[in-house]
Amino acid sequence: MQSLDLDAVRAEFPGLSRGWTLMDNAGGSQILRGVVARMTEFLFERNVQIGGTYAVSQAAADALAQGRYALAEIMNAARPEEIVFGPSTTVLLQNLARAMRHTFAPGDEIIVHMGDHESNIGPWMGLEEFGVTIRRWQPAADGTPLDMDALDALLSERTRLVAVTHASNILGWVNDVAEVGRRVHAAGARMVVDGVAYAAHRAIDVQALGADFYVFSLYKTYGPHYAAMYGRYDLLEELETLSHYFYGRDRVPGKLEPGNPSYECAYSAVAIRDYLAGIGGAPGRAGIVAGFDAIRRHEDGLTGRLLDWAASRNDVHVIGPTSNPDSRRLPTLALRVSGKDSDALCRIMDQDRIAVRHGDFHSRRLVETLGETGHGGLLRLSLVHYNTPQEVEAFIAGMSKAIEG
C-alpha cells in the first residue's frame, strides 16, 4: 500500500511556491512540472502538422497517439481511439449533443439530472427544439445523494439517454454511477457522465461504471486548460461528423475534433499519467489505481478534519452529506455561515492569502433548488492531494476568526 510523500508531491507543482494556500482547486488545479515539460518538448521539437511523411511530422503524430493512450489508461478505456480531445468539458458536451442529434426522433426522451454542472444540462435541453422530450431528474432540496427511485420513475421505453454527474462540484459526494448505468442500460438507454469534479480525486474506470460517454477537464486534473471525452467506440462510430464533409463516420475520433486537437495539450496527458502511476509505484493502469488509493487516504484525512470543525460550530452549515462513509465524500465542501455574506468571507480570507471561492460554480440549478443563491451564494473550499493538514488548520483558524470578527 503506497503512502503519499507530500514533500515530493508538492515539489512537482511549481505554482504552490507563490505563498498562497490554494483551496479553490475545483475551479482549476495547479499544473504539473512534467506537463509543462511535455508541452515545451512538443512545441520545440515536434511542432508541425501530423500526416506528413517526414520525421518531424511522424514525431508529432506519435505525441498525439501517446496522449490518447495515456488518457485511455487513466480512464480504463478499451482502446485509445475512444478518447476525444476538446478545449473544455462544456465544448465537448455541446459537440456530443450536436453529433448525437440525428440519433433522436421526435418524442424520444433524455433524462437530465438537474443537480449537475450546467455543461451537462444545457446541451441536452437544447435538443428540445428538435422534438426531444427532456425529463428532469430533480435533486433533493436538502442536498442528499441521487434518488434512484426518482430515476426509475422517469425511465421509460422512450428514454434514449441519461445525463448525470459522477460527483457534484458543490455537494462533494461520489454518486453511484455504476448503479445508474445498470438501470439505464436495462431500460435500453445510454449514459453520459460528467466526471469533472471526480477525476482529480479517484481512479476512473469507464468500463466498470458502464459509462457510454465520460468527460472531464485536464485543467482540473493537474494539466493544461483542455479536456477529454471517452466514448465507447461503436457509439462514436454512429455519430455525425463535426469536421469536413470528407471525414466519414468511420473516422474516429478525428471527426469529433474539428480543426485538429491541441497536440501539445494532448501530449501533456502522458505526464499526468506518469505522475499518478509514480505515486502508485508501478507503471500503467496498476500504478494509476494505486496512486489514487494513496490520494484517497490522504484526502479522507483532510475531509474528516474539515467536517469535524464544521460540526463543532452551530453557525457553519455544510451543504449536503456531513460524513464520509466508505470514502464517498470528496474534499470539496460548500458552506453557509449563518448571518455572513460569502463574498465578504472570501475577501477576508484573501488577506491571509487563503484562496477559496463563493457563488454557484455553474451549478446554478442546484443552488437554486437548495435556496442558496443569496448573500454571495455558497462559500466553497476544494482541496486536492497536494493540500496539507497544516493548510487545513490555517483555513480553520482564519475562517473562525473571520466568522467571529
TrEMBL record:
Q: Which Pfam families match?
A: Aminotran_5
Q: Where is the Aminotransferase class V domain?
A: 23-395
Molecular function, one GO term: transaminase activity
Q: Which UniProt keywords apply?
A: Aminotransferase, Pyridoxal phosphate, Transferase
Gene3D superfamilies linked: Aspartate Aminotransferase, domain 1, Type I PLP-dependent aspartate aminotransferase-like (Major domain)
Positions in coiled-coil regions: none
Task: Tell me the domain of life.
Answer: Bacteria
Q: Protein name, please?
A: Aminotransferase class V-fold PLP-dependent enzyme
Organism classification, top ranks?
Answer: Bacteria, Pseudomonadati, Pseudomonadota, Alphaproteobacteria, Rhodobacterales
